[in-house]
């Protein structure tokens, strides 16, 4: 005969265990079903000695079990003891294989054949049993694992961690913690941001890196696994590293087959989608089944435990209970114009802002803990042009005006340029009518996009549409682009990989979203560099217009992203829009002229073309491929006067941002040590006070909030950032010239700075780098001070084209 209970709880993790404890305290007939021989399998499988965090810190714990930050072993010991003390009815080795029935009469069938009856079911099974697998060649080799039990078991190994969430970071730190183990530990992150991880974990990881205990590789993805080696795709191309063991911590997904067999539907077909739930944790498609914990989209332990407590209270008829985060959210909504409950506000924002549509009511609560919402009156400024800022805004009601030219309405977003590129605000935004806007911090926005495929698709679609409108112009509207944008695919391109090959068929258009491309043509059996295409350019229109084969090869100068647009859809757009066709033909004519020039010069001018091609490739290797502005010195003109360095120091508190002699030279062209102002600056990736910004003219600069941590210096691959103290103020040049006071022009010696330092005042070091003399009239001092014109600052696209040879340049 089947055992009968009022509540059956599936899974004894923090959520399920807390639910069982509440049921026990209320005297409710219950059973806690756990498929293993121990409680809380997820925590049990944490690595030994792991420090478990109790976040969010502002959230009150509501549970009959204790929980505070501490070691994994101590927490499990407390829960085992308290589970016994509260007389939780737990059944081990009880794996549920099917749930049937309806609210008030469920039947749970276990794998051992036994049957349990329950009026309500709480599903708290988590997702850790269904990890995302490494789906690359060699990903099924035996040295690839998805779990780390005891870091102390591994000695003298080259270990690579794949995954930049909390689990991956904690595994990496655990394996590198003890120097006596002599492990060489590397952690890979496919982006530059650790958006899924807690701040404390990220700081701990970089602390270990700075101490030389492990390596952190960003913008890197695994390509191929071999015994003893791992091939990686990095910003600079493909590389192969020693690797004895791979620990893949790339997240996990719900066991959908089992969950859907219970009648529970998901919000979408995406692997990372969550079940459809009400605000009270109940499945909207299988009433009577309640879902809590990680399976509901709440992975944090404190959230899970609060949900376990709350759901049992709800099942028991407590209609007045409010979630533990209610006071926090009430404070966020307090200043808004209309009187709504927290649940009503959450639903209003979720349904009205497109990037939030796929979030459940429960996920919305967590999301809003990291976001803000505010009402704006008509005409009120949201932000000004050139303001720093990388947050994303969603329009829940009303509309905003962009620089008096464009109106963006309810449901859409703005601020995505700062989010994606880190640039300052590109336009002034004001409320076009009374509006309610959600401001999402950069960290929260990246986390949302990483964990919610629907949100990522919306941001990608809108940013693509706006990039196309800005790039093509020609009076186009968003409606004109509907067919083309529906075909858009964002593709990652490894450094050196071609998106178009000379002589191939095909007519797709490629828009360069991130990174840069070089265009080459085969001349005499070898590739000749033609031109350079930065982000914001497009290529491929020649095959669309004339229907011929590809006339040149286009490959990534650095790791890049392109938007592939269907060529046939683009043809139809050109047919409907004659102004766009005229623009495309003009762009095509320029490329045809360039091809014709190279063909005409291939015999009489081949040596010069070869030399230019070699110089261009050298510059790309020196980081020009990701630069927005680069300082070059013509060694044929340079007389070594060092006026450029002296002028730089005199314009920047006595500290030069330039090392003229350092850097590499090819032929007569020298690339000194000076900031490239990269499109996606490496230095921005890990700045704790967010002191690094991009100015209105593309300059990357460091503000006065710099704390001197040195992360930017370590992250810069070009060695252009230094850490130093600001020297004492020097006497003026006239005083030096007439009376010999002070050290003279340029950067003072350390001896002078020490001798003239303010007594008793120890100035801290801070990061020093070129800011392109932002705010200084006349532009970069290094260029202005050069007496021979040897020093020039250029945008790569204005310099890197073989067409310069036609004018006797290069």
UniProtKB/TrEMBL annotation:
Gene3D superfamilies, alphabetized: 3.30.70.20, FAD/NAD(P)-binding domain, Jelly Rolls
rRNA processing as UniProt keyword: no
GO terms for MF: 4 iron, 4 sulfur cluster binding; metal ion binding
Recorded coiled-coil stretches: none
One Pfam family hit: cNMP_binding
Key words, A-Z: 4Fe-4S, Electron transport, Iron, Iron-sulfur, Metal-binding, Transport
Sequence ranges assigned to domain 4Fe-4S ferredoxin-type in this UniProt record: 629-661, 698-726, 764-797
Domain Cyclic nucleotide-binding: 355-457, 472-591
Protein's recorded name: Fe-S-cluster-containing hydrogenase component 2
Source organism (scientific name): Edaphosphingomonas laterariae
